[in-house]
């Protein structure tokens, strides 16, 4: 049960990030250490999973898909979206500068964390950064 609650809280972080402009739920999943497990769990919904489910092998299906992990994270995401969106609505109406400052801080921390996970800076890394920045600038200012 403790692991369920921990994953629920991490899911709340992911869900909260999905409501914040400029912050990615995927980045929060990376920061909280659940990104790879989340991707692997989502990838596991394949033909084997379908066969297990439709042959009534629910225990094997749950294990194959890491269902309890997905359920705990998913419940956290849903809870955050339903609650944090309302809090942000209130904050936008009453404290917009504080809320935008909070968003900006979240973005800076996300940039820092992703930056320190880069093990080797080379031409491909720099080129990827430049392309990503160019795309982001085009989306932000080109539309």
Written account of the structure:
- The longest helix has 28 residues, at 67-94.
- 83% of the residues lie in helices and 0% in strands.
- The chain has one domain (2-118).
- With 143 residues, it is mostly helical.
- It has helices at residues 2-19, 25-32, 35-43, 47-54, 58-65, 67-94, 96-116, 123-141.
- The relative contact order is 0.13.
- α1 (2-19) runs antiparallel to α2 (25-32) and α6 runs antiparallel to α7 (96-116).
- The chain contains eight helices and no strands.
State which percent range the strand residues make up: under 5%
Structural class: mainly alpha
Q: Which stretches are low in confidence, meaning pLDDT under 50 for 5 or more residues running?
A: none
Quickly count the helices: 8
Overall pLDDT, averaged? 92
The count of strands amounts to: 0
Q: Give the overall silhouette.
A: globular
Roughly what percent helix?
over 70%
Radius of gyration: 18 Å
Number of domains: 1
Please provide the ordered H/E string of secondary-structure elements: HHHHHHHH
- CA-CA gap between termini: 47 Å
Main β-sheet: number of strands, strand sense, barrel status? none
């Amino acid at each position: 049960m403790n692991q369920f609650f921990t994953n629920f809280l991490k899911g709340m972080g992911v869900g909260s990030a999905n409501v914040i402009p400029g912050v990615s739920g995927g980045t929060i999943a990376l920061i909280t250490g659940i990104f790879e497990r989340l991707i692997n769990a989502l990838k596991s919904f394949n033909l084997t999973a379908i066969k297990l489910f439709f042959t009534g092998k629910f225990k094997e299906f749950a294990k194959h898909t890491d269902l309890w992990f997905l359920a705990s994270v998913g419940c956290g995401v849903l809870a955050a979206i339903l609650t944090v969106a309302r809090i942000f609505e209130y904050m936008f109406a009453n404290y917009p500068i504080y809320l935008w400052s909070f968003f900006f801080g979240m973005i800076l921390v996300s940039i820092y964390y992703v930056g320190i996970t880069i093990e080797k800076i080379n031409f491909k890394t720099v080129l990827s950064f430049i392309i990503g920045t160019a795309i982001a600038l085009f989306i932000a200012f080109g539309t």
